[in-house]
Design a protein that fits this description.
By secondary structure, the protein is an alpha/beta fold. 48% of the residues lie in helices and 12% in strands. β4, α7 and β5 form a beta-alpha-beta unit. The longest helix has 25 residues. The relative contact order is 0.19.
């Protein structure tokens, strides 16, 4: 096998996408789950290890001994959806209007509530939705800050479906959270940018890996 999709995507973005030229590129994909990949001097790090750069499986806080209590469980698309369902379930009487507005987007079926619905509600000013996204971005920002503190990448490339929410309700708050948690000497030494290659990212990465194999 040439590598898992996230590693392949990391290599593609580092070589052909938003991470071109920098020495160290950290890639994060935020979709149904959260994955990571690290590219150093144009080469994928940790290919011979069981796992590498798995940012989604970091566990925020010293009390997070449950292997399921991860950045992914809080900040992935699925994590955002689960958090929204809990907030709706335990809404106070004074919050019924916000609750109903969010439920209307999924036709009052909470199992049909999606991260896309929640982002749409946040854009429309729904405080429930904004609270959910704020919590997700804090967890993800914490995770990315740990990676920057340890690895000092010049560029962090973020892709995946959740990142398509855009600057105002994804990248800008995420950058603020990373800055909150990163080691102070590294503040302003990195860029956090959207992935550039879209749905073709894995194809680009696989071709790049295949060419590398042929040259060895």
């Amino acid at each position: 096998a040439l590598g898992n999709d996230c590693d392949v995507a990391a290599l593609a973005e580092a070589r052909c996408g938003s991470g071109q030229d920098p020495e160290i590129v950290f890639f994060v994909t935020v979709g149904t789950g959260i994955g990571g990949g690290l590219v150093v001097d144009g080469k994928l790090h940790g290919r011979r290890r069981p796992a590498s750069a798995e940012i989604g499986h970091l566990r925020p806080g010293l009390e997070a001994i449950d292997p399921h209590a991860t950045v992914e469980s809080l900040a992935s698309g699925r994590g955002i959806e689960n958090r929204a369902r809990k907030i709706i379930e335990f809404a106070a009487p004074s919050e019924q209007q916000q609750k109903l507005a969010l439920l209307e987007l999924c036709e009052h079926d909470m199992q049909e509530l999606t991260a896309k619905n929640i982002a749409q509600a946040a854009i429309q000013g729904n405080e429930f939705a904004r609270r959910v996204l704020d919590g997700a971005y804090r967890a993800l920002g914490w995770g990315i800050a740990q990676a920057i503190t340890l690895l000092a990448p010049q560029v962090v490339v973020v892709g995946g479906g959740v990142s398509l929410i855009g600057d105002e309700f994804f990248f800008n708050p995420l950058r603020q959270e990373v800055k909150r948690y990163v080691f102070p000497p590294l503040v302003d030494t990195y860029k956090i940018v959207p992935a550039a290659l879209g749905e073709q990212v894995v194809v680009h990465g696989a071709l790049s890996m295949a060419a590398e194999h042929r040259s060895q």
